[in-house]
Write a structure and sequence with these properties.
With 374 residues, this protein is α/β, with parallel strands linked by helices. It has helices at residues 3-33, 87-92, 106-110, 133-139, 196-200, 209-216, 228-235, 237-241, 246-264, 282-287, 309-324, 338-351; strands spanning 97-100, 116-119, 149-155, 158-160, 178-181, 188-191, 220-224, 269-273, 290-294, 329-334, 354-358.
């Protein structure tokens, strides 16, 4: 064989080997493309977004964390409440509240961190010092920009001589519904709260008390002296005997005010203070958005004195009816003793109640978050 022929044969053999190698590589690539990657889930096993499991919802405002001693670090601040959240939803997840009825400084109150504020409709109780809608706008915004609820204090079981509705001649010529003065609070008078004349002071005209509160821009009302029924049975027996169901009369009055307000402002909040026996009425509980209790743990028998276990248990049994209905329970204790403040904070937290602590003077003339240092 000539050298030329030998070179040609070698070249052909090399070409054949190259073609075989190339075809083998192509076969491997086609096989790999038709099989999933090792250790990876096939794309067909990833559910579409609408079928992916989501985290179970939690009760509003009750964030849960792992049992570890430290929470996972956050890379961003907590988001503000969702825009447009209803007042009821905001109240349901409130973690703090403040309560001041005298000497309110709007600018200072606006800088507080409370989720809920209960204040008087006026700086000093007079109509001349009534808050303006612009004041309510300030108070409804917390320093972090999130929404705060603001409720107006409203006593519906006693007449107060420093209110705009009071007439100077009432002490000489009393309306039929005006009764005796409260021996514990000067210038506060028990009333026949079921009387149409008394109830007309609260709703039905632009000058009525509730109508003014709605016009000011409050989120709701905080009703006091719904427990005047106890005072009437003790001090005004003749008036009490004319009513076969005093508690039913009060429940009906509260329901009337709530219906009236919500017809004019849907979502308007109604919070009742004390009057625990009324909570045994399912219809009233359905009307209320929350209940508040004064001196649950201390103060019945004297300033800062611990209440008896029976007294605490009696109140708790009724307050927990609201808790079972999924509604908040607010508590205010009047304490100066730091150790007692700490105990009250621990106890109410365990019960799922929201605590505010004011001075033992009960004047409610300051706004301070004393539980933070308890």
């Amino acid at each position: 064989m000539s050298s030329t022929t030998l070179l040609l044969v070698v070249a052909l053999i090399g070409l054949a080997l190259a073609v075989g190698f190339w075809m083998g590589r192509m076969t491997q690539r086609r096989t790999a493309a038709s099989e999933p990657n090792a250790g990876a889930e096939p794309a067909s096993h990833i559910p579409p977004p609408e079928h992916r499991p989501i985290e179970a919802s939690r009760p509003p405002g009750r964030e849960t964390r792992p049992a570890s001693t430290a929470a996972a670090p956050s890379t961003s601040p907590s988001p503000a409440p969702i825009a447009g959240a209803s007042p009821g939803a905001l109240l349901g997840r409130a973690q703090s509240w403040g309560y001041q009825l005298q000497d309110l400084d709007v600018e200072r109150a606006a800088t507080s961190t409370f989720d809920v504020l209960v204040i008087d409709y006026s700086r000093d109780g007079t109509d001349e010092s009534a808050l303006k809608p612009a004041d309510l706008t300030k108070l409804k915004r917390k320093p972090d920009g999130s929404r705060r609820l603001v409720a107006a204090y409203l006593s519906i079981g006693e007449a107060e001589s420093y209110r705009y509705y009071w007439r100077k001649d009432w002490k000489r010529r009393r309306p039929a519904w005006l009764l005796s003065e409260n021996p514990d609070w000067d210038e506060n008078y028990a009333v026949c709260f079921w009387d149409a004349g008394w109830q007309s002071l609260f709703c039905g005209s632009p000058e009525a008390y509730l109508d003014r509160i709605i016009a000011q821009g409050f989120d709701g009302i905080y009703l006091d002296k719904c427990d005047v029924t106890e005072d009437l049975r003790r001090r005004e027996r003749d008036a009490a005997r004319t009513r076969p169901d005093l508690d039913g009369d009060m429940a009906a009055f509260v329901e009337r005010l709530a219906t009236y307000a919500r017809e004019r402002r849907p979502g308007f909040l109604v919070i009742m203070q004390n009057a625990e026996p009324l909570l045994e009425r399912p219809r009233l509980r359905a009307t209320l958005d929350a209940v508040a209790k004064e001196e649950l743990l201390y103060g019945i028998d004297g300033a800062e004195k611990p209440n008896s276990r029976d007294d605490v248990a009696w109140s708790r049994e009724r307050l927990d009816l609201m808790r079972r209905d999924g509604k908040p329970v607010l508590v205010v204790e009047y304490l100066d003793d730091k150790a007692k403040i700490a105990k009250a904070a621990q106890a109410t937290r365990a019960l799922g109640y929201v605590l505010y602590v004011s001075d033992k003077s009960r004047e409610l003339d300051k706004l301070q978050n004393r539980t933070e240092v308890a």
